[in-house]
Amino acid sequence: MRKNKAHNSLRCHFQEGEPILVDANVWLYLQPPASNPAPPFARRYSAAMKNLIEAKAKPIVDCLVLGEYINRYLRIEYNALYQAKYPNYKAFRTSGDFKYVARSAVAEARQILSLATSLDTALSEVNIADILQGAETGTFDFNDGMLVEMCRLRGWKLLTDDADMQVGGIEVLTTNPRLLKACS
Questions:
Q1: Of 40, 78, 106, 142, which is least surrounded by CB within 10 A?
Q2: Residue 7: beta bridge partners?
């Protein structure tokens, strides 16, 4: 499998209408759960998103990204605030506390949907054999493989902080020094 080509997202000159799939980790930096404020380096992704929007590029979100965002948001809040109160995550999910946290997560998801164009990941279009093989060998996780494959098929760039996004033959935008170095 071909290596991805990584670019520093702060130095990108976005083009009007240019499709950029924004990964869940970036959304979590831009719209973090209350118990987990964004780290200082998240400002770089905020600046990249500002540049992307000012250039009238096209931020994209799909169901995999949105699902990862919501699920991770809920887990972060559970681990930080509710793990001692509830013996397991399923007990938390049936509690009144969950409803409060879920309302916040869904409000943030709605904000993401207002900022980005929603496009579906098409399982029927991807090379599922390659994705399953990559998941089986540990080259990447299944969702990452799907995202990379959709970017490759549709000519999208991927804005991510995930240092594992090294293979697939796509263009990756990041400020993660490990990913920039690995894909140089």
A1: 40
A2: 173
pLDDT of 75-128, one tens digit each?
999 999 999 999 999 999 999 999 999 999 999 999 999 999 999 888 889 999
Strand blocks (E) in the chain? 5-8, 19-22, 58-61, 117-118, 157-159, 171-174
* 50 neighbors 12 (Cβ within 8 angstroms): no
Examine the pLDDT at 173 and tell me if it is beyond 80.
yes
Report residue 133's pLDDT band, with 50, 70 and 90 as the boundaries.
very high
Beta carbons of 73 and 105 less than 8 angstroms apart? yes
Residues in a beta bridge with 158? 21, 172
Any idea which architecture 5-64+118-182 has in CATH?
A: 3-Layer(aba) Sandwich (3.40)
Does residue 143 register a pLDDT over 90?
yes
Residue 139, H or E segment: none
CA dist., res. 62 & res. 4, Å (int): 20
Q: Is 168 left (phi over 0), alpha (psi -120 to 50) or beta?
A: left
> How far lies 33's CA from each of 27, 49, 99, 100, 126, in Å?
11, 19, 14, 12, 32
